Amino acid sequence: MSHQPDGAAFDVVLLAHVACVVVGLATTLASAATASRLQRLVDRASPLSESMARYFAPGVNWAGRTTYGIPVFGFALLAMSQGAYALHDGWVLSGLGIFAVLVLLDEYVLWPSERRLQGTLADSLAEGSAPGSSVLRDARTMQFSASASVALLVLGSVLMLAQP
Question: Is 164 helix (H, G, I), strand (E, B) or coil?
Fold first, then answer.
């Protein structure tokens, strides 16, 4: 192994890489917590608060998409490492595997359930009706998948720090 990479450019890219992880963790934790809160409101037949309605306003969760910066900056770090790290390192390949599972989970479970909730809640708020059973199902799906995504992000972070 070569020496530990250093320099301002490497540090800036590393900070961007870590920032993508932190923002991804924060938004995913917020998704899990908000879905849990929504479940409690629906179970109690309580009206949605303004902040809950605002959270589920239709639109793309762009903050959650910052997770795509993780491998982008990770590959840049590999290129800038002057041979200290390589794509064939086990911890790098494991990190890519964890990221692949994260993307599949987010793209095919978490974000679609969030989009369904956005549409359903917008419709029920416009009609002044109570949310249906599909809201509870999608909120549970969103909470479970967001919790699993948080676990994957933490696992990947631990792996990147340990570099076994």
Answer: coil
CB-based contacts of 112, cutoff 8 Å, min separation 6: none
CA distance 104 to 82: 31
pTM (2 d.p.): 0.90
Closest CA to 96 of 71, 77, 117: 71
Contact (CB, 8 A) for 142 and 148: no
Distance CA 133, CA 124 (A): 12
C-beta of residue 64 within 8 angstroms of C-beta of residue 31: yes
- In the chain, what is the straight-line distance between the N-terminal and C-terminal CA atoms, in Å? 13
DSSP line for 115-137: HHHHHHHHHHHHHTPPP-HHHHH
CB 126 within 8 A of CB 105: no
Q: Which amino acid is at 125?
A: L
Cβ atoms of 135 and 42 within 8 Å: the answer is yes
Query: What is 35-89 written as a DSSP string?
Result: HHHHHHHHHTTPPPPHHHHHHTSSS--TTGGGGGHHHHHHHHHHHHTTTSS-TTS
Give the pLDDT confidence of 79-123 residue by residue, as tens digits: 998 888 889 999 999 999 999 999 999 999 999 999 999 998 888
